[in-house]
Amino acid sequence: MDFNFIVNNIEVYVKAATLTLKISFFGILFSIIIGLILALILYYKIPLFRQVSKIYIEISRNTPLLIQLVFLYYGLPRILNITLDAEITAIIGLTFLGASYMCESFRSAIQEIKMIQIESALSLGFSEIQIIRYIILPLAFSISLPSFGANIIFLIKETSVVTIIALADLMYATSNIIGNYYKTSEALFLLVISYLIILLPISLLFSYLEKRFRYV
């Protein structure tokens, strides 16, 4: 193991990790927003939107992110003459995949909320919006924390495939180093450490939050 080489290439991985975090942040943020909207649509059984949501979820969950990225980045320009920036493509692809997983987490959590809690809110004169804001959302967040945290970690790890559209993420940096310098062990060591630095604090944070906000 060439530790001098590792030290000299830390900056490369810092830049790659920054891009990975940027894509992950926006992809996860939009996944949460869209996933929550979809969960509420399914919970309230809104006509037409409910059927569309189910179709989207099935397509999203049953196609790999790699295929989605290839379609968005290479397929759209040929089919619809729409060209997307590589980073935008990665964020859209991650959102498309992530929203369906977030939706299922929120939907299953909402279904676990006891009806008596909602009925009590109605008897106190709460509107539907107030019930969603003060009853459903806080309880759904508490119940869904384990799967919510697992989804976030899953989506961050899924960013490793964005190298297919030539984004200089962690996997791209690793492939370049192996290809240019044949330093396989060093490159893989830096890759593993980079993902540990990103994912371990998130995992510990959600472990703490699960205990702190455990729904009884």
Gyration radius, in Å:
21 Å
Note poorly predicted spans: none
Shape: flat
Query: Whole-Å distance between the termini?
Result: 50 Å
Kindly name the structural category.
mainly alpha
Query: Mean pLDDT, as a whole number?
Result: 87
At CATH level 2, the architecture is Orthogonal Bundle
Give the ordered list of helices and strands.
Answer: HHHHHHHHH
Count the strands?
0
Count of DSSP H/I helices? 9
Largest sheet: none
CATH class reads Mainly Alpha
| CATH fold label | MetI-like fold
Bin the strand percentage: under 5%
State the helical fraction.
over 70%
Output the CATH homologous superfamily: MetI-like
Number of structural domains: 1
Key features of this structure:
216 residues; mainly alpha; MetI-like fold
Short description:
The protein is mainly alpha-helical. It has a single domain (3-212), classed as Orthogonal Bundle (MetI-like fold), CATH 1.10.3720.10.
Structure explained in plain terms:
This protein is mainly α and 216 residues long. The protein starts with a helix and ends with a helix. The chain is built from nine helices and no strands. It has a single domain, classed as Orthogonal Bundle (MetI-like fold), CATH 1.10.3720.
